[in-house]
Design a protein that fits this description.
0% helix; mainly beta; 4-stranded antiparallel beta sheet; 123 residues
Length: 123
């Protein structure tokens, strides 16, 4: 079983950047397909981006394409989310998630979750 811990969240002005990290322990990261989800206050958790086990396949929700970049370092056992040109609507708690079986855009496809890191973008 893998444990996931997110970090890197914070308060940033619109147009700014943040880099989130998701550190894995307990199992090697290359065992899992990975994703980032987010949940804004009063809203359901939504898919942001996934990356396949090898890193060869990624998929972004439309609203973050061209602004966010997912990557993974299987040696460091860490996944990253570089977020540029942040907008107030990106404000949410960001969660990393892991799946042994495949990638997808629904939260039910991921078995393991971190506790989240808050991202707040001020206008």
């Amino acid at each position: 079983q893998v444990q996931l811990v997110e970090s890197g969240g914070g308060l940033v002005q619109a147009g700014g950047s943040l880099r989130l990290s998701c550190a894995a322990s307990g199992r090697t990261l290359n065992t899992y397909h990975m994703a980032w989800f987010r949940q804004a206050p009063g809203k359901e958790r939504e898919f942001v981006v996934y990356i396949s086990r090898s890193g060869g396949s990624t998929y972004y929700r439309d609203s973050v394409k061209g602004r966010f970049t997912i990557s993974r370092d299987n040696v460091k056992n860490t996944m990253y989310l570089q977020m540029n040109s942040l907008k107030p609507e990106d404000t949410a708690v960001y969660y990393c998630a892991a799946s042994r079986f495949g990638v997808g855009v629904t939260s039910g496809q991921y078995e393991y979750w971190g506790q989240g890191t808050q991202v707040t973008v001020s206008s």
